[in-house]
Each structure stands twice: as structure tokens, then as C-alpha cells.
Amino acid sequence: TDIEDLTRFNEAIDQAVTESVAHYTKTINDSRNLFLGVLGHDLRNPLGAVSMGAQWMERSGTTDAKQARVVSEIKLAAGRATRILNDLLDLTRSSFGTQIPVTKTENDVAALCQEIADEFRAVNADRKLQVATKGDPLVSCDRARLGQVLSNLMGNAVHYGDVATPITVTVAGNDPDAVTINVHNLGSSIPRDAQKSIFESWTRGQDGGSPPEHNTHLGLGLYIAKLIVEAHGGEISVQSDQQTGTCFSIRLPRK
């Protein structure tokens, strides 16, 4: 009888500890997500003011080359900070079990890829981005959200890819039910172990070798990209090795 009572007592203690740990973990996670949500929301307005001020100064023009460079740097920095806050808000939304909202309309994804590639060419004159289309590029999607995904993938290709070789973006629309977008670059590959977790939050698959002060990646980009693609009912995957390079693939249903 004593042994049975002791066993039941130990089981009760184990259960109480398990429940306490689970409650504590949930409380910490909820507090963190709430903090990130408030931080992202409250910083958007002052950042927007900084960005609008820089754009106004850029349009007004200046004869001083140094001032023009500073204004350009302010505009780029505000843009990077805004993208980071958007990622944090998307992370918070997903942590509370809310799917990223998408508003679908019919879009030419090849034209969207070309538009984003042009943006990267404008600020990376030494890099070559090629966009190729096969078949019908029309798909029902949220243009802004899909542009966020493509910008992340092309940005990674520019950041981690070999500067001497082109980045290729291929839109394949031969399938009547889906469109596939591939973003490929040569250069340092993603380790096989990292490929298994690369779409998880706070994860980075490669080390671009940039100094810490120039690195604004939080390891959220691919996680947010996965959430957006899944909100469209699609899939995102990666293949990477030293010989063939790195290729991210997005498959989106047409409807």
C-alpha cells in the first residue's frame, strides 16, 4: 500500500510539473508575441514619416552630392526597417494561429518577376538577373504578397550568389492547373541539414560573410515566404548543392 501511494504521489507531482511548464511556456510565448506585435505596430508611423521625408527631400533635389547620398541612404534604411517590421507582424499573426490574409486577383507572374528583377538591377548594377517564361504565366494571387516572396528569394540570391554568374528566374506555366516559379543562383550552397529547417522562423541557411552591422536578416524571410505561399494553397521548396547551385521553387495553383 505504501508503494502504491508513493507511486501515485510521484505521478501527481510529474503531472503538476508538466502542466506548470506548459503554462509557463505558453505565457512566455504569448508575452513575446504581444511585444513583437506592439513593437511592429507602434514603429510603423514614425518609420513612415522618416521614409516620406526622405522621399520628399529626394524629389526636391540638392546640388550637394554628399547630401544626396545621405538622403538615399536614409530612404534605403527606412525601407529595410519597414520590411523587418512587416516580417515581425506576420510572425506575430502566425504565432496566434491567424493565417496571413491574401486578396487574390488574376496576375501575370512573369511580369511581376520582371518588375522585381528590375528593382534589384537598379541597386545592384554589377549583378545580372534573367527572367524567362514558358507557357501561360497567369495565376490568381495576391500581387503584393507574392511580390514580397519573390523579393525575398531574389534578394537572397543576390546576397549569397556568385557575383560572376547570373541569377535566373524561370516562370513555367505549361501545367493547366498550376504555375511554377524557380529562382536559381550559383555560389555557396545551403548545407543539407540546414535545408530541413530553412523555412522555420529565426533560421538562416547560409552565411553571406557580411559584417554584422550590414546584416539586417532576422531569419524570418523564408518562414514568412512559406506562410504566404501556403495561404495561396501552394508549396515552396529548395534544392541546393555545390555543383548545381541553389534553386527555390514555388508552385501556385491557378485558382
Report on the structure:
The protein is of the alpha+beta class. The protein has two domains: 2-95, Signal transduction histidine kinase, dimerisation/phosphotransfer (DHp) domain (Helix Hairpins, Orthogonal Bundle); 105-253, Heat Shock Protein 90 (2-Layer Sandwich), CATH 3.30.565. It contains six helices and seven strands; from the N terminus they run H-H-E-H-E-E-H-E-E-H-H-E-E. The chain has a five-stranded mixed sheet with strand order 2-4-5-7-6. A two-stranded antiparallel ribbon has the order 1-3. The chain is globular. The protein starts with a helix and ends with a strand.
Keywords:
transferase; Heat Shock Protein 90; two-stranded antiparallel sheet; phosphorelay sensor kinase activity; alpha+beta; HATPase_dom; 2 domains; HisK_dim/P_sf; Helix Hairpins; histidine kinase; 255 residues
Topology summary:
Elements: H1 2-60, H2 65-95, E1 105-108, H3 109-123, E2 129-135, E3 138-141, H4 143-160, E4 167-173, E5 178-185, H5 192-195, H6 221-231, E6 235-241, E7 245-253
Parallel strand pairs: 2-4
Antiparallel strand pairs: 1-3, 4-5, 5-7, 6-7
Helix pairs in contact: 1-2, 2-6, 3-4, 4-6
Q: For this structure, what is the CATH homologous superfamily of the largest domain?
A: Histidine kinase-like ATPase, C-terminal domain
**CATH topology heading of the largest domain:** Heat Shock Protein 90
Number of DSSP helical runs: 6
CATH class of the largest domain: Alpha Beta
User: What's the number of domains?
Assistant: 2
Report how far the terminal alpha carbons are from each other.
66 Å
Radius of gyration: 23 Å
Helix-strand pattern: HHEHEEHEEHHEE
* Beta-strand proportion: 15-25%
Characterize the main sheet: 5 strands, mixed
Please tell me the overall pLDDT.
83
Helicity, in percent?
40-55%
- Per the principal axes of the C-alpha atoms, what is the gross shape? globular
Total strand count, please? 7
Strand order of the largest sheet: 2-4-5-7-6
Structural class: alpha+beta
Segments where pLDDT lies below 50 for 5+ residues? 208-217
CATH 2nd-level architecture of the largest domain = 2-Layer Sandwich
Keywords: Kinase, Phosphoprotein, Transferase, Two-component regulatory system
GO molecular function, one term: phosphorelay sensor kinase activity
InterPro entries: HATPase_C_sf, HATPase_dom, His_kinase_dom, HisK_dim/P_dom, HisK_dim/P_sf, Sensor_HK_Regulatory, Sig_transdc_His_kin-like_C
Catalytic activity: ATP + protein L-histidine = ADP + protein N-phospho-L-histidine
